Amino acid sequence: MVRRSVVTGYGSYLPERVLTNDELASRVDTSDEWIVERTGIRQRHVAGEGELTSHLAAHAARRAFDQAGIGADAIDMVLVATSTPNETFPATATIVQSELGMRHGLAFDMQAVCAGFVFALATADNFIKAGQVDRALVIGAETFTRILDWSDRSTCVLFGDGAGAVVLQGSDGEGTVEDRGVLSSHLYSDGYYHDMLYVDGGPSSTGQVGHLRMAGREVFKHAVVKMAEATDAALVANGLEADDVDWFVPHQANRRIIDATSKKLGLADDKVVITVDRHANTSAASIPLALAEAAGDGRIQRGQLVLIEALGGGLAWGSALIRW
């Protein structure tokens, strides 16, 4: 028997405020046509005044609990993947733990920027496989609009706020690719590429939060290659082909990147979950938001094979293969 981490619940939350491309065009030198053509984004959600990353995360968590049919007392571990924590410390996960009424277990944050949810899922999976926890709550939550330079049209049009969550439950499988749960995860990073995507501030450097800076063309080039390699690694590790995948749920950064990656993998368009047009890039929240949407509307069905992948600042990237 092999210990697996099965997804038993999912949930999502998007702030009420919607910022359209046309509204952005009134602030910076851009247009709806320019943004859609280059990114596929038409709108994004923006957290309201006083609405923190922990609030978004807790909303998504409660919906995941409802969908799983459990309460917070059933959770042993809370992981929050985020690059926009409430505070430098303590971990936003501990704040979420408190908001959910939990006085037990462990809680910590995972920082791998847009790849954060993949890293957090892999971490929770390994805790479950090691027998240290039985049930984990994994959340991707961001208020990314708080670190944008709204005068920089090359970056401010790309990002939005939101949160998504999944509940992972330990379960014994047969050790085959037919088992439900996380079949494998594959994580990578290379700090050499730091200057391609970073925030120009922090407690130890400037003492200020700073703003996101990105070399868009270089990120695009590396994203397509590295994410395709990560997804190939997941398929090879499990003895599968791209045709075996039922759903490809990539990080929702840019429609061009998604299309190029799925084409490189040879995946049909009707197998790709797309939310970037409505959510924009919500960093660590993008994959769990997309998973919750596709599972919630009935596209992703129990027993189907789901491939996820992401790349973010660091650079950090990775993939995971899940039998839903």
Overview of this structure, please?
The protein has 324 residues and is of the alpha/beta class. The strands form 4 sheets. The chain has a 5-stranded mixed β-sheet with strand order 1-7-6-4-5, with helices on both faces. It has a 4-stranded mixed β-sheet with strand order 8-13-12-11, with helices on both faces. Strands 2-3 form a two-stranded antiparallel ribbon. Helices cover 32% and strands 27% of the residues. The model has no long low-confidence stretch (mean pLDDT 97). It has 2 domains: 2-173, Peroxisomal Thiolase, Chain A, domain 1 (3-Layer(aba) Sandwich), CATH 3.40.47; 181-323, Peroxisomal Thiolase, Chain A, domain 1 (3-Layer(aba) Sandwich). It has helices at residues 21-25, 32-39, 53-68, 92-99, 116-129, 153-156, 216-237, 255-265, 276-279, 286-296, and strands at 2-13, 17-20, 43-46, 77-81, 106-110, 135-143, 161-173, 181-189, 197-199, 212-214, 247-250, 305-312, 316-323.
- What is the CATH superfamily of the largest domain? Thiolase/Chalcone synthase
Spell out the helices and strands N to C: EEHHEHEHEHEHEEEEHEHHHEE
Structural category? alpha/beta
Helix residue percentage:
25-40%
Radius of gyration: 18 Å
Shape: globular
Low-confidence parts: none
Number of discrete domains: 2
Q: Assign the CATH class of the largest domain.
A: Alpha Beta
What would the keywords be for this entry?
324 residues, globular, alpha/beta, 2 domains, Peroxisomal Thiolase, Chain A, domain 1, 32% helix, four-stranded mixed beta sheet
